[in-house]
Amino acid sequence: MNPNSQNQRWSKWVWFVVPGTIKARPFAIVRENCARFGRAIFGSASQMRIRHTRRGYIIEVMTEGHPVHDPAYVKFMGENWSRFFTEGFGNGTTTKMSAKLMAGSRQDGTPADQLLILPQISIQEGVNANGQRTL
Amino acid sequence: MANALYNTAKEGFLGNTAFDMDSDIIKASLIDAADYTFSSAHDEYSGGARDVPLAAIVAESAQLGSPTVVNGLFDTADFTWTSVSGDQSEDVILWDDTLANDRLVAFYDTGITGMPVTPNGGNINVTVNASGWFSL
């Protein structure tokens, strides 16, 4: 994947959801339902990450091809997801959403944003040339 | 090369230098590989005996937000290099802006999605790995 190739537009969408008090859901069910809804809304060119914190759920989606620079589209997505969360968790559910262009054009004449995704360094035990254990 | 921690950081984490990753000002720079060759022995990002030439630095971040150290894993919030112009870049350096002469922490040149990147005057958004910058 090269997010910086021409004609691609990558965006990151984040929801913070505090479930209502009516319906408690196992994390596995929440994850499965969010994945299914996300695939339906965003399509398959997306990555989703879901975390469960003490205060609620954080759902992050990195996706390609959606006009995140269009406020009407962002509002439309916000309403759809808010309805989805309320139907899933019950009344009283609160949802906060943010949407950010990560790579691609804003179509306003400014240079396109570009995106880098970093790997992690994991220090593992190894053996050096002298046969000594190292990190 | 491969992604690696600098020796100065490893020694610092063992107590030789007062690295405090979740309290110090930690920054990240975009590096032009044509002007910088990694050595694990490099230790200073700036100062009189700087190991990273100015010509190699294409962009510097502000202080990285939300630094955490949990279970030996260092993580921060995602960040943006704003309005970047300059040479095509291939590497990322993580460094500590609090310590004298800005001590080097980690070097990344492998497995970065989107690299090499050619600055176009716009923003470069950086997503930190879901598992953080590095773990010990």
Protein architecture, described:
- The complex is a heterodimer of chains A (135) and B (136).
- Chain A is built from two helices and eight strands.
- In chain A, the strands form two sheets. A four-stranded antiparallel beta sheet of chain A has the order 2-3-1-4, with helices on one face. Chain A has a two-stranded antiparallel sheet with strand order 7-8.
- The mean pLDDT of chain A is 88.
- Chain A has helices spanning 27-42, 71-89; strands at residues 10-18, 46-52, 57-64, 94-103, 114-117, 121-122, 126-127, 133-134.
- With 135 residues, chain A is of the alpha+beta class.
- Chain B has 136 residues and is mainly β.
- Chain B is 5% helix and 29% strand.
- Chain B is built from one helix and ten strands, in the order E-H-E-E-E-E-E-E-E-E-E.
- In chain B, strand 7 and strand 8 form a beta hairpin.
- The longest helix of chain B is centred in the N-terminal third of the chain and has 7 residues, at 7-13.
- Chain B is globular.
- The two termini of chain B are 20 Å apart.
- The mean pLDDT of chain B is 94.
- Chains A and B meet through strand 4, strand 5 and strand 6 of A and strand 1, strand 9 and strand 10 of B.
Unreliable stretches of chain B, pLDDT < 50, 5 or more residues?
A: none
Q: Taking all residues together, what is the mean pLDDT of chain B?
A: 94
The quaternary structure here is: heterodimer
Strand content of chain A: 25-35%
Distance between the termini of chain B: 20 Å
Rg estimate of chain B, integer Å = 14 Å
Q: Tally the beta strands of chain A.
A: 8
Number of helices of chain B: 1
Tally the beta strands of chain B.
Answer: 10
Low-confidence stretches of chain A: none
**Pair of chains with the largest interface and how many residues each contributes:** A-B, 25 and 32 residues
Structural class of chain B: mainly beta
Q: Describe the largest sheet of chain A.
A: 4 strands, antiparallel
